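Office hours follow-up: a student asked to see two folded examples consecutively, so here they are.
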Amino acid sequence: YYIYMLCGAGWVKHGDHGRTIVAAIAMATVVPVTSMGITGQDLESEESLWDLYERWCAFNEVAREPDEKLMRFSIFKQNVRFIHENNQGDARSKLGLNIFADKTHAELPKVEADCTSAGHLPYHFDYMPHTAITNEDLPDRVDWRDHHAVTSVKNQGQYCGACWAFVAAGAVEGITAIKTGKLEDLSPQMLVDCDKANLGCRCGESWRALDFIKKNRIATDRAYPYDGIQRRCHMRADGLSRFASIEGFHVVYGSERALMAAVAIQPVIVEIGLDIYFHYYSEDMGMYTGPCNKTITHAILVVGYGTDAFLRRYWILKNSWGTK
């Protein structure tokens, strides 16, 4: 089976320049409430802000010790004001008080900014020119969740920069389900522990993880569960616990239409740059339309695309930061 990746900003191959994705994320058909809104009354006083924080803790089932709670409340107030100011007027993207609302920016989920080779793909890769796949008509809408080819949202954890492993596992989950009808959660932990071409929880590159899966196969998450800490590799030498493999993968480049054509075939890995605003995006707040950072720091899975009632085109992205 083939996995498709998008060539990101700053990658130059065979005279073609990669394209940055300005990601717009669609609301799901059934929208889970993942964040809280902010009213002017919430900002009127210290007491009203404290009441908002108490409601936020209850909503997210967060328990804090008294001393920590006071410290977290101070951070929470700053984030509340940042989110509220962003949401005024005709803000491009509305933000919400999601699970990250009482954390500092330094505590937000790790991204792989310290991979020195990030964004540099070997020249021997199979590239899929956009002209080879964009001449045919494409579906107006694709959502692989509707076709039982996307597993549930996972949580890489605050201290493990393993998005590269989650997207590699997710892409293989998708193509395996499409080809065999069997949707299984695969093991990012196996990649974190065993793929020595990457750096575990420090950082990694999804193409290296795909190459590892091609050579070694990958276990299910049940056989090799995730705990967010890089440990000694313990995959069985006989390979019996390894569930899935791929024949190879292509890099997609050239245009957004080329990405659409690839996503029409299967879920696709993309590598993007994150802005701080992205951390406070919440699905129930609507579509995220930016901003994005030009430096590639994060890997994410595209599982669909479409156009909403206002004729805005969007991508459906699966992240690995938990359901909230």
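And the second, which I mentioned at the end of office hours:
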Amino acid sequence: MTGFLLVGALGIVLLVLSLLLGDLLDGLHLGVLDSEFFSTAALAGFIGAFGFTGALLLDLLHSQPIAIGGGLAAGLAIGALVGWATGRLKNQGEGGVPSTSSLRGAQGVVISAVPAAGYGEVRIHAGGHPLKINARCEQPLGEGTRVWVSDVLSATAVEVRPVEALEA
């Protein structure tokens, strides 16, 4: 039973190290097993669940094969659950920041006047994020004018039209 408890304690130590050292430990696998199911946290969950479940089953049933089998089953279940959860947590923010190519049709307001032959600035809300970007228009627009993006000119500039033109 002591062996199982030591394995479980090793899982806890690995989990603490993973929390303290963050992505440093996850980078040690060198891309061989590039998946969240093989992350340090998932490995720590597997080792800890295997050790503690094995110790519990050995104490209750006094059978080494059942303790090993039950420990493996619990370790695989907990390791997979932790791997799935860490993958979801790490990937939840992806795609949240809009790119300029996705701004067509977005609405905003002029924050720096747009002259007829030049650029001003607009603040656009896209995907829940405020974005300040250079803008031009065929007609001059004063500060506070509500606009919508009619075209994307570059990564830092858009063409806008007044909202009134859209409503007309």
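Two things to take away from it. Residues 29-34 have pLDDT under 50 and may be disordered. The chain has five helices and five strands.
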